[in-house]
Amino acid sequence: xxxxxxxxxxxxxxxxxxxxxxxxxxxxxxxxxxxxxxxxxxxxxxxxxxxxxxxxxxxxxxxxxxxxxxxxxxxxxxxxxxxxxxxxxxxxxxxxxxxxxxxxxxxxxxxxxxxxxxxxxxxxxxxxxxxxxxxxxxxxxxxxxxxxxxxxxxxxxxxxxxxxxxxxxxxxxxxxxxxxxxxxxxxxxxxxxxxxxxxxxxxxxxxxxxxxxxxxxxxxxxxxxxxxxxxxxxxxxxxxxxxxxxxxxxxxxxxxxxxxxxxxxxxxxxxxxxxx
Length: 276
Prior knowledge:
CATH topology of the largest domain: Heat Shock Protein 90
Radius of gyration: 25 Å
Distance between the termini: 48 Å
Number of domains: 2
Helix content: 40-55%
């Protein structure tokens, strides 16, 4: 619009930009709700079917509890249905927790100074028992006192999601490597050698992902082909959201040697490192 005072034209342009941003936000929220509804519907449907099966089993058990003389009818087993219901409930709880984490990552803007090295060691201690059950080791390589600016509670969620994913794919007898380092930002378009960052890298020795899957892996509800059942597909999406909310980013890549997946999450460092 070329007519009118400059101030009004500027105001009109500002309103147009704001309206466009609001429209984009609304569309994004609609897509998120649709995706969430679809993902929640699957375990709910499975749960409904299991409950129906359990009811049938109980009815059969009730009938067979008074067998006719000379007959030997065994009650229908219900252990599998009960276990399946528990698994679906766990999956629902995981989905709800993941959705809440993603929602909070965009609204909780409280940034804290976090000792990433200490957080990495604490996470390894926290997950050591489960890793041992899978015959998997955890190794942390982190200089003392590496600090970064991260959304409150974000580093714990990032570590928990990455280690949980790694344990799920790591072969027995292998080691999951957790590395904390300082340096320039990642290898992608965000790379900027003028800003020092803290890198939190979790590497496993599992099957890894091809380039196309690595591009999709941080999307909401995406799961790798052949992934174990029971996952929510939100782990890496939550990691990416928390990294962005902290002013950082995430990149998935192939390890320099051997099979597996390397997930590099970076955050703004508290202070530049000498020589950078």
